[in-house]
TrEMBL record:
Disulfides per UniProt: 131-168, 154-206, 160-208, 183-193
Ranges of compositional bias, category Basic and acidic residues: 40-53
PANTHER family: BONE MORPHOGENETIC PROTEIN INHIBITOR, NOGGIN, NOGGIN
GO biological process: cartilage development; dorsal/ventral pattern formation; negative regulation of BMP signaling pathway; negative regulation of cell differentiation; osteoblast differentiation
Subunit structure as annotated in this protein's UniProt entry: Homodimer.
Family: Belongs to the noggin family.
Regions crossing the membrane: none
Protein's name in the database: Noggin
Signal peptide limits: 1-22
Length: 216
């Protein structure tokens, strides 16, 4: 007795093979970085090393930072007051959004499917392999100004490749200029503290890449 195979099953198997081949065609992944986001800083708890009320005058600090102040990645006040949320996610793809060129150039002739089906496969593959940036506001404490920085994180709850094995990792970052309250070492009575400029890197783009392993 000859067993009949569902056309939908054949198409599904064909799509899986073609998507795996398409993943190999996409050789546009930038080199990832394993050093972001920045780990939490362990500050000296000595209250004598904290800036005083006069040191935290907004006008003075705004003038010290000048044009380097970045309202997109930093905030003077708590972002949860007035912005509604401290977490944002670049998620979802608009149907009106143009498919990137590298996905348009993928060869799906082996599918032997209608052009409409190919477009859906390309858009699905684009959506599946995307690595959106999860933006979270982080409170750096009173020794930084602005004290709130919008850090980026890459989602790692599932693989972003076909076949599985690759995950979203940081591939690009930007540096946010902040003021850092710095106290010179020495006798506490003679200590000298002042605001100095510091560059704080945050993830601005995530990409699909292989996990790296460290050998002990």
């Amino acid at each position: 007795m000859e067993m009949k195979v569902s056309p939908a099953l054949v198409l599904c198997a064909s799509v899986s093979v073609q998507l795996a081949l398409a993943q190999i065609q996409l050789r546009v992944r930038p080199s990832p970085s394993d050093h972001l986001p920045v780990p939490d800083l362990h500050e000296d708890p000595d209250p004598a090393l904290e800036p005083g009320e006069r040191d935290l005058a907004p006008r003075l600090l705004r003038r010290k930072l000048g044009s380097s102040f970045d309202p997109v990645f930093s905030s003077i006040g708590s972002p949860t007051q007035g912005n509604g949320t401290g977490i944002t996610l670049e998620d979802g793809i608009s149907l009106a959004e143009a498919i990137p060129l590298e996905f348009q150039q993928l060869d799906f002739t082996g599918l032997k499917a209608a052009a409409r089906t190919e477009r859906r496969v390309r858009r699905w593959l684009w959506s599946y392999t995307r690595c959106p940036v999860l933006s979270v506001w982080k409170d750096l404490g009173a020794r930084f100004w602005p004290r709130y920085v919008k850090e980026g994180q890459c989602l790692t709850d599932r693989s972003c490749s076909l076949p599985e094995g690759m995950f979203c990792k940081p591939v690009q970052s930007v540096s946010v200029t902040l003021l850092r309250w710095h106290c010179q070492q020495g006798s506490r009575a003679l200590k000298h503290c002042a605001w100095i400029r510091a560059r704080y890197p945050v993830i601005s783009q995530c990409g699909c890449a292989c996990l790296s392993f460290t050998h002990s």
